[in-house]
Design a protein that fits this description.
73% helix; mainly alpha; 24 helices
């Protein structure tokens, strides 16, 4: 359902830590000694100017004694990538700092945490962030960094809590709110994810993709009617939108393509809503609309197969299924598609085709129940009784339609003249389910079996009498 999003402005759920760390660590500008440095410009033309600058600045602090000295040396070490050395300087800062100054101590702890993160020492980083938040509970950077570590450790619930606290302090950070929305999705909290996307859309109304994201999450939350009505409003609004005449031809083409992709997504998702509401004709119309507007053929045809199967339009199931299977990027869930096509062919009396589809269903989706049963029915209809017996046995082992399986397997045994096995299965038909029509049919076959065994008894008796006469 995520296809067709506007990827511009999209952020991954695990944000790039190094960028935030760089902001935290290098926020103090080095503004001294630029006149002296400029004298060496020609000499440094073939060297790394930044390293040279840091060396010069470091030479200016021969005997560090004050908090500011160690703080500046820590900044230089950070710039040079000497993180262990920088931690040592920050420890000196901590020893000289006024612990009653919460803002200063929080800053030191935050810098230490950033260094630990760069060194991938996440346990110490978390401990430092805990200290930073004790000194300053409203340190937005500490909350954000801790959330990043929690995300790296897949601790989604704590990460969500920290990002919630962060957004309470920095409510306009749309990128972080998007991250929080994605975490909510991972946690299955779709209604809250929808609220996040809606808030971003309110902040950036020109980015209609976030409106679609909000509606998609409402769909996932089971709010089918609300989501459907939202998609309808979106489609009605954007189908009438025209690209500005002031746009260049290339820009206009790009905007039209983007708008068409979002409309295709809206049609597809509205079709999913209609499916859930059992409005199958409307769902099929929407999926066809999504196809016309360029939505993923594989994803859309898969939904059309399923929708047609549920609505018992078996010819359409096979037609859509063949189109899907012809695609180079056909669905990964081929077992389900083949099963629906096989069951549809069976229902249409196309038993040879049904056996072929269902065999492929078993090969591509061995975990799916039902394929053995439908293939067994098709084999029974083709008179391939021994193969059908094997399939009904497999279906019984899977626990799928066991009463039907026992009855149909019993019919196979009758045709194979294995009446003892048929008797066992008809007895199981009477005790393994509540389908009365099956019970009546099994009872009828049991009466026929009774006549057979009665005739066998009579024949055996006549044979005994004949032997006695001969004697």
């Amino acid at each position: 359902m995520k296809a067709g999003r506007n990827e511009k402005g999209k952020k991954p759920i695990l944000r790039v830590v190094s960028l935030v760390i760089a902001i935290v660590l290098l926020c103090t500008a080095v503004v001294t000694q630029f006149d002296a440095i400029s004298q060496f410009a020609a000499v440094l033309a073939e060297e790394d100017p930044l390293s040279r600058i840091y060396s010069i600045l470091q030479d200016e602090i021969d005997e560090p004694q004050t908090y500011d000295d160690y703080y500046q040396l820590a900044n230089i070490a950070i710039g040079q990538g000497n993180y262990e050395e920088a931690l040592g300087y920050l420890d000196e800062c901590s020893a000289l700092a006024d612990e009653s100054d919460g803002a200063l101590m929080a800053d030191l702890m935050l810098r230490k945490a950033s260094l630990y993160m760069l060194m991938q020492n996440y346990d110490d980083a978390l401990a430092a962030l805990e200290s930073a938040l004790e000194y300053d509970p409203e340190s937005s950077q500490a909350l954000l960094l801790r959330a990043q570590i929690e995300l790296a450790q897949q601790s989604y619930l704590p990460a969500a809590r920290d990002l919630e606290s962060y957004l309470a302090l920095v409510p306009d950070d749309a990128a972080v709110r998007q991250d929080l929305a994605q975490i909510y999705e991972v946690l299955g909290r779709y209604a809250e994810a929808a609220e996040c996307y809606e808030a971003i859309y309110t902040q950036f109304p020109q980015e209609s993709v976030y409106r679609l994201e909000a509606l998609r999450c409402q769909l996932l939350a089971g709010e089918y009617e609300t989501a459907r009505d939202g998609f309808t409003a979106y489609i009605d609004e954007h189908e009438q939108t025209e690209v500005s005449e002031t746009s260049s031809e290339a820009d206009a083409d790009g905007q039209n393509a983007s708008m068409e992709a979002l409309l295709a997504t809206a049609y597809f998702l509205r079709g999913c809503c209609e499916m859930q509401l059992a409005n199958y004709e409307l769902a099929i119309a929407d999926f066809e609309g999504a196809l016309e507007r360029g939505y993923s053929e594989a994803a859309t045809l898969e939904q059309l197969v399923t929708c047609s199967y549920i609505s018992e339009n078996y010819e359409a199931v096979i037609a859509y299924g063949e189109r899907l299977l012809a695609l180079p990027d056909a669905s990964a869930s081929l077992g389900s598609v083949y099963q629906q096509m096989g069951a549809s062919a069976m229902s249409l009396g196309q038993y040879e085709e049904a056996v072929e589809y269902l065999t492929l269903a078993i090969e591509n989706g061995p975990e799916l129940v039902g394929s053995y049963y439908y293939r067994g029915v098709s084999l029974l209809s083709l008179g391939r009784y021994e193969e059908a017996v094997a399939d009904f046995t497999s279906s019984i082992e899977q626990g799928y339609l066991t009463q039907f399986c026992y009855y149909n397997r019993g019919v196979c045994y009758v045709n194979l003249l294995d009446y003892d096995s048929a008797l066992d299965d008809m007895e199981m038909t009477l005790t393994s389910g509540d389908e009365q029509t099956l019970k009546d049919a099994a009872t009828n076959i049991l009466w026929q079996l009774a006549q057979y065994y009665e005739s066998q008894r009579l024949l055996e008796g006549e044979q005994i009498d004949a032997e006695q006469i001969v004697e």
